[in-house]
Specification:
The complex is a heterodimer.
Chain A: E1 2-10, E2 13-21, H1 27-33, E3 42-46, E4 49-51, E5 62-67
Parallel strand pairs in A: 1-5
Antiparallel strand pairs in A: 1-2, 3-4, 3-5
Chain B: E1 3-8, E2 13-18, H1 28-39, E3 53-57, E4 71-76, E5 83-88, H2 92-98, E6 101-107, E7 116-121, E8 125-129, H3 138-149, E9 154-157, H4 160-163, E10 171-173, E11 182-184, H5 189-195, E12 198-204, H6 216-231, H7 234-243, H8 248-255, H9 271-274, H10 276-286, E13 291-294, E14 305-309, E15 315-317, H11 322-329, H12 337-350, H13 354-366, H14 375-386, H15 390-396, H16 399-406, E16 413-414, E17 417-418, H17 428-436, H18 461-478, H19 484-487, H20 493-503, H21 509-529, H22 542-545, H23 559-562
Parallel strand pairs in B: 1-6, 7-12
Antiparallel strand pairs in B: 1-2, 3-4, 3-6, 4-5, 7-8, 9-10, 9-12, 10-11, 13-14, 14-15, 16-17
Classes of the chains: A mainly beta, B alpha+beta.
C-alpha cells in the first residue's frame, strides 16, 4: 500500500489530503479521482519537482497542484 | 490606426505623419524595433539627444475586447545599453488607440532644463510648460495634471527618479481610476523621458472617434468568443481573479524558485505571510477601499490587479504584484505585506522599477548596509532615494551599479537588469530567457513556467525559451496581455481573428509569430550595433557555480546551446 500527501491550491483555500493508493497510479489518475480533469491547466509539483501526468506515484510523495499561472 | 506623431524637443516642432504603408500589423514592440533600427544610431548615448522615446499601443488598442490594451514604451536603455520595450496595462494605450495614434515619437532634447508635458487630443497635440511639476512625486503630479486637464484624461508620468536620470527609473501609466501605478518599469526608460525633459504625456480622448475597425461583425463575434472562454475559465477565476499574480508565491516557493535573500536560496520561510492567500485574506478582512480583484485595463475580464488596504481600510498601494513581492519581499528577507506595500508605494511615487530596486536593496543588505529582513531599514533606504542622497542615488541606479559600488559579488542581473522573481537555477528555461533576451533579465520576454519541461534539468530549455520568447513578443506587438493566452486556452487564432477584424486582412497565428520573430531579429541586430555580442548572453557566474540549496541545482544549460535560441535568424 502506498500513501501520498495531496495538496490542491485552488483560490483562497487549499485542500490537503492523505491518500492511500492500492496500485500503480499515475498523476493523471490521482487528479481525475480528485475532480481535476483539465490537467494541462495545472502545474503539478511532486517533492519540489514539476512533474507530468504519466508519472507513477511513489510511497511518501508530496503532491502539490497549482492552477497554471505565469507571471506578474 | 493611422497616425504617427513626432515631438522634437530640439526645436519644439510637432509633426503628424501617416503610418507607413505595410505597417497594418506593426504596433507596440514591433513598431519600436522598426523605428529604432531605421532612425536611431545604436551606439548613441541613451540619455543624449540622438535617442528616441517611443510610445506605441498595440494594433488592437482602443477596442473593447478583453486584454488587448497594453502599452509599449521603448528606446535605447540607459540600464542595459540595449534596445528596450517596457510594457504595461492601464488606459493609455486604449486612449491613444481611440485617437487613432499608432505612435508618439519623442525626439531630441531641449537646450535648457525646462520641464514639459505633452497634451494629446483629437484636435491638437501641444507641448505645455509644467515647471511646477519639477521633483513632484508621481501620485501628486497626476492629481495636479488632472486639475489642469480634466478628470478623465489618461496619463504617462515620470517621477523625480526619471528627472534625475536614475537608471532604475520607470514610467507610470494611469489605470481605470486614474491611479498612476501601471508601470512601464523596466530598463530605465523613465530616465530617457527625463533626459528629454518630459514630465508627462496627457491623453484626452473625450471627443475621440474611436479606432477604425475594418470588419465590425468579425470583431464582435471574436470579442464574444474570447469573453465566453475567459469568464468560464475556472483556473482564471481561482488564480488570477481571486489571488492576483501573488498566487504564484506558493508555486515558485515549492519549486525552490522564489528569490530569497539576494538570490542565495529559492525557498522563503516567510512565504506564507506574503502569498496570494494571505493577500486575499488581508484585503477581504480589512475591507474599506481594498479590492482583491481589479481590472487594470478597460474591458479586462481576467482582473488580476488588486487594491491593498491598511488596517483602517485606506489604500496602501494598488496593485501588489508577484514580482514586487518576490523582489522587495523574499529577496530582501521581508515577510510583511504591509511593508512590501509601503515600499511598492514609495517606488511608484518616486518613479522606480520595483524589480530593480528590490534587487538593489537585496544587494545593499548583502553588503551589510542594513540586515536582511529589516523592513524599516528598507523604507529608510527608499527615503534616501527620495531625498537624493548619495546612498539614495546608488540604490536608485539599480542592482548592477549598486553591486559594483558596494563591492558585492552576487549581483542578480542579466545585461545589467535585475532578474524577475524566478531563480534561473530552479526554472532553467527562464534562465535561458534572462541570458539571451534582447531585453536583458526579464520574465515577460519569455516565460517558461508552463512549458512542458522539467524545470530543473538543462534539457529542452532552449526550445522552451525560444517558443516563449516568440509568443511573448507576439503579445507585445499586438498589444495583448500575456495572460490572455492561458485564459482563452491557447486559442491564439482568436487573436488573429481580432487582427483581421482591425486590418481587413486574414491573419494566422503563424503570421503573428512571424511579426514577433522579425521583431526579435531586429532587436538583436540593434544590440549588435550597440556593441553587444555572444558574451553578453550569459548569466552572472554565481548562478553556474553556487548551488541554490532549495532546488539543489546550478544553472547548467551549455553555452553552445544558448547560441541556438535564435536559430530562426
Amino acid at each position: 500500500m502506498k500513501s501520498v500527501k495531496l495538496e490542491i491550491f485552488a483560490g483562497s483555500e487549499s485542500i490537503v489530503k492523505e491518500i492511500n493508493l492500492d496500485d500503480d497510479k499515475t498523476v493523471r489518475d490521482l487528479l481525475t479521482e480528485n475532480g481535476i480533469d483539465e490537467i494541462n491547466e495545472y502545474i503539478v509539483i511532486i517533492n519540489g519537482v514539476n512533474t507530468f501526468d504519466s508519472y507513477i506515484l511513489q510511497h511518501g510523495d508530496r503532491v502539490k497542484v497549482f492552477p497554471a499561472m505565469s507571471g506578474g | 490606426m493611422s497616425k504617427i506623431i513626432r515631438i522634437n524637443l530640439a526645436n519644439n516642432e510637432i509633426r503628424e505623419e501617416a503610418s507607413p504603408k505595410g505597417w497594418e500589423m506593426i504596433g507596440g514592440r514591433a513598431l519600436i524595433s522598426k523605428v529604432m533600427e531605421e532612425e536611431v544610431d545604436p551606439t548613441c548615448d541613451p540619455l543624449g539627444p540622438k535617442n528616441k522615446l517611443i510610445i506605441a499601443p498595440g494594433v488592437l488598442a482602443g477596442t473593447t475586447a478583453s486584454c488587448v490594451n497594453r502599452i509599449s514604451i521603448g528606446g535605447k536603455s540607459p540600464l542595459t545599453g540595449t534596445i528596450k520595450e517596457s510594457n504595461a496595462g492601464g488606459t493609455t494605450a486604449y486612449k491613444l488607440g481611440r485617437l487613432g495614434i499608432k505612435a508618439l515619437i519623442i525626439e531630441g532634447q531641449p537646450a535648457d532644463n525646462g520641464l514639459f508635458t505633452i497634451y494629446v487630443s483629437e484636435d491638437k497635440v501641444e507641448l505645455v510648460k509644467t515647471e511646477e511639476l519639477k521633483e513632484v512625486g508621481v501620485y501628486s503630479a497626476a492629481d495636479k495634471l488632472r486639475e489642469r486637464f480634466g478628470g478623465k484624461v489618461g496619463m504617462i508620468i515620470i517621477g523625480p527618479a526619471g528627472e534625475r536620470l536614475y537608471r532604475a527609473a520607470g514610467i507610470a501609466n494611469t489605470d481605470n481610476e486614474g491611479v498612476p501605478s501601471r508601470y512601464s518599469a523596466r530598463g530605465g526608460l523613465g530616465a530617457v523621458m527625463g533626459s528629454k525633459r518630459i514630465k508627462a504625456v496627457v491623453i484626452d480622448d473625450s471627443v475621440a472617434k474611436g479606432p477604425e475597425i475594418a470588419n465590425e461583425e468579425l470583431f464582435k463575434k471574436t470579442r464574444s468568443a474570447m469573453a465566453e472562454l475567459i469568464v468560464n475559465n475556472e483556473q482564471v477565476a481561482n488564480s488570477y481573479t481571486k489571488l492576483g499574480t501573488a498566487g504564484l508565491v506558493n508555486l515558485t516557493n515549492s519549486l525552490g524558485a522564489l528569490p530569497t535573500r539576494n538570490f542565495s536560496t529559492g525557498s522563503f520561510e516567510g512565504a506564507e505571510e506574503i502569498n496570494g492567500q494571505k493577500l486575499y485574506e488581508l484585503i477581504t478582512s480589512r475591507k474599506g477601499e481594498g479590492r482583491p480583484s481589479h481590472a487594470c485595463m478597460p474591458g479586462c475580464l481576467i482582473r488580476c490587479s488588486n487594491v491593498f488596504p491598511d488596517e483602517n481600510g485606506k489604500t496602501i498601494v494598488s496593485p501588489i504584484e508577484y514580482e514586487t513581492i518576490g523582489l522587495l519581499g523574499s529577496n530582501c528577507g521581508i515577510s510583511s505585506l504591509d511593508t512590501i506595500g509601503k515600499l511598492n508605494y514609495l517606488c511608484n511615487d518616486i518613479g522606480l522599477d520595483t524589480i530593480d530596486i528590490g534587487g538593489a536593496i537585496g544587494v545593499a543588505m548583502e553588503a551589510g548596509i542594513i540586515p536582511f529582513g529589516d523592513g524599516e531599514g528598507a523604507v529608510k533606504l527608499l527615503e534616501e532615494v527620495q531625498n537624493d542622497t548619495y546612498l539614495g542615488k546608488i540604490i536608485g541606479s539599480g542592482a548592477a551599479i549598486a553591486g559594483e559600488v558596494l563591492g558585492v559579488k552576487r549581483v542578480p542581473v542579466a545585461k545589467g537588469q535585475v532578474l524577475a522573481a524566478y531563480d534561473p537555477r530552479a526554472i532553467k528555461g527562464l534562465g535561458v530567457t534572462y541570458a539571451t533576451s534582447p531585453m536583458g533579465g526579464d520574465h515577460t520576454a519569455g516565460q517558461t513556467l508552463r512549458s512542458p519541461v522539467d524545470h530543473k534539468k538543462p534539457e529542452g530549455q532552449v526550445e522552451a525559451s525560444r517558443n516563449a520568447q516568440i509568443v511573448n513578443t507576439l503579445h507585445d506587438c499586438i498589444g495583448t496581455c500575456f495572460f490572455v493566452g492561458g485564459a482563452i486556452k491557447g486559442e491564439l487564432q482568436l487573436l488573429g481573428d481580432l487582427m483581421e477584424s482591425m486590418t481587413g486582412k486574414p491573419c494566422s497565428v503563424e503570421d503573428m509569430k512571424q511579426v514577433a520573430k522579425d521583431t526579435l531579429i531586429r532587436e538583436r541586430r540593434f544590440n549588435r550595433g550597440a556593441g553587444l555580442n555572444e558574451a553578453d548572453d550569459r548569466l552572472p557566474e554565481f548562478f553556474y557555480t553556487e548551488e541554490n540549496p532549495a532546488s539543489g541545482t546550478v544553472f547548467d544549460v551549455p553555452n553552445e546551446e544558448l547560441k541556438e535560441v535564435f536559430n530562426f535568424e
